[in-house]
Amino acid sequence: MDARPPSAAPRLLQQVRERVRYLHYSLRTEQAYVYWIRFFVRWHGLRHPRDMGAPEVEALLTMLATQRSVSSSTHNQALSALLQGSAGSGSALDGGPAAARLHQANSHCSHCRGGTGTSWRHGRTDRPGSEADVAPVLPDTF
Asked: Which terminal CB of the chain, N or C, has fewer other CB atoms within 10 Å?
């Protein structure tokens, strides 16, 4: 049974947990997202994420890359957690253009940065065994 009064809104980390569970993410992903959001809030002096925006996220991601030398997958996980945590919170990152710019600026794949190359995760069809390799062999009877 929920001990919270009906008028009280759920706390930030509880909202994140509920949203991640709603999206059927794994328990380990939920734990990692909660960790990164707590880290973000504590690193910025216990300010609420709705009062922060892209500059604060960029500052954290820059610190992770320069001072902590985290891998690109850790960097992307932190960014995803912060974007997920801001969903529905009314912050500057809440699915708006700032979130898209932040993803493109901090992304490690050339497709998301606007480069010409694409990866197989973003719909590339010119890898071996793809339609681009098979199409010249197939007759035009389809």
From this structure: N
Look up tokens 């069809």; give the residue.
125
* CATH tag for 12-106 (out of 3.30.450.150, 3.90.1150.10, 3.40.190.80, 1.10.150.130): 1.10.150.130
Q: For residues 80 and 30, is the Cβ–Cβ distance under 8 A? A: no
Q: How confident is the model at residue 4 (pLDDT cuts 50, 70, 90)?
A: low
Residue 6 has pLDDT above 80, yes or no: no
> Is-above-0.90 flag for pTM?
no
- Residue 20: CB atoms within 10 A of its CB come to 21
**Is there a contact between 87 and 96 (Cβ–Cβ < 8 Å)?**
no
